Amino acid sequence: MIKNFKWLLLVSLTFVACNSDDEPFVDPNSTDGTPLTAGSADFSKYVALGNSLTAGYADNALFIAGQQGSYPSILASQFALVGGGEFKIPFMADNTGGLLLGGTPIAGTRLYFNGSAPASVPGVPTTEVTNVLSGPFNNMGVPGAKSFHLLSTSYGNPAGIGSYANPYFVRFASSSSASVIGDAVAQSPTFFSLWIGNNDVLAYATSGGTGVNQTGNLNPATYGANDITDPNVFASVYSGLVDQLTANGAKGVVANLPYVTTIPYFTTVPYNPVPLDATTAAQLNAGYAAYNNGLLFAQSNGLLSAAEVARRTISFSASSTNPVVIVDSYLTNLSGFGIPSYRMATNEDLIVLPARTFIGTTVGGNPAQVNGVSVPLADSWVLSKDEIQEVRVATDAYNSAIESIAQTKGLAFVNANALQTQIALGGIAANNVNVTSAYVTGGGFSLDGVHPSPRGYALIANKFLEAINETYGSNFKGVNIGLYRILYPMDPANF
Question: Of 2, 4, 192, 398, which one has the greatest count of Cβ atoms within 10 A?
Answer without folding.
Answer: 192
